[in-house]
């Protein structure tokens, strides 16, 4: 990555971290995926029960692989025949892994979900929520964050899941009511009432969608 972009990301991350702190959430900056992995494992005590939604960012930094260890009780949704049971187990987990579809420079988190298991767990349930967020997801304000979530993240995820939605075919949100739509539930997290619950690791990399 160009050194000017690295410096830009460092400076922007500090602004985002201050925004998160003002909203009773904790922010961290990792200069690389390797550093993000180290930070994440420091925030997850050994012996913790850990689960996740469909967090590509956690996979990309190697966190999911690291958690498939006897040191952790990883609830692997992919290993469950009963997906609903795996999703329900998330609400009583010690740590829930996620990312965001977008976030603002002043620390507001924006997420869109189809089944709502991810956004509901972010909102309530797990003792700690740990988010792995590439700097590519940081947007200027709430309006641009929502536009990113709907026009960048949603089409890419619809394509990833092989869904038959207008956005999967056209590459942009058409505000559809397709049976396959993944834009069913919108969660905007502007403040955490519970201190030390939501932790966001900002990574100097393009991660996820």
Protein architecture, described:
The protein is of the alpha/beta class. It has a single domain (3-203), classed as 3-Layer(aba) Sandwich (Rossmann fold). Helices cover 38% and strands 21% of the residues. It has helices at residues 3-22, 33-43, 56-60, 63-67, 83-89, 117-123, 142-160, 166-170, and strands at residues 26-30, 49-52, 73-74, 95-98, 102-104, 109-113, 128-134, 138-139, 185-189, 198-203. The protein has a six-stranded parallel β-sheet, with helices on both faces. The chain has a four-stranded mixed β-sheet with strand order 8-5-6-9, with helices on both faces. Strand 5 (102-104) and strand 6 form a beta hairpin. The two termini are 19 Å apart.
Mean pLDDT rating: 95
Distance between the termini: 19 Å
Number of strands: 10
Q: What percent of the residues sit in helical stretches (DSSP H or I)?
A: 25-40%
CATH topology call: Rossmann fold
What structural category do the secondary elements indicate?
alpha/beta
Tell me the count of domains.
1
Q: Over the alpha carbons, how many angstroms does the gyration radius reach? A: 16 Å
Largest sheet: 6 strands, parallel
- Reading off the top of the CATH hierarchy, the class is best stated as Alpha Beta
- Percent strand equals 15-25%
Tally the helices: 8
Poorly predicted ranges: none
- Global shape: globular
CATH architectural designation:
3-Layer(aba) Sandwich
In spatial order, strands of the major sheet run 1-10-7-4-2-3
Q: Write the CATH homologous superfamily.
A: NagB/RpiA/CoA transferase-like
- H/E topology pattern: HEHEHHEHEEEHEEHHEE
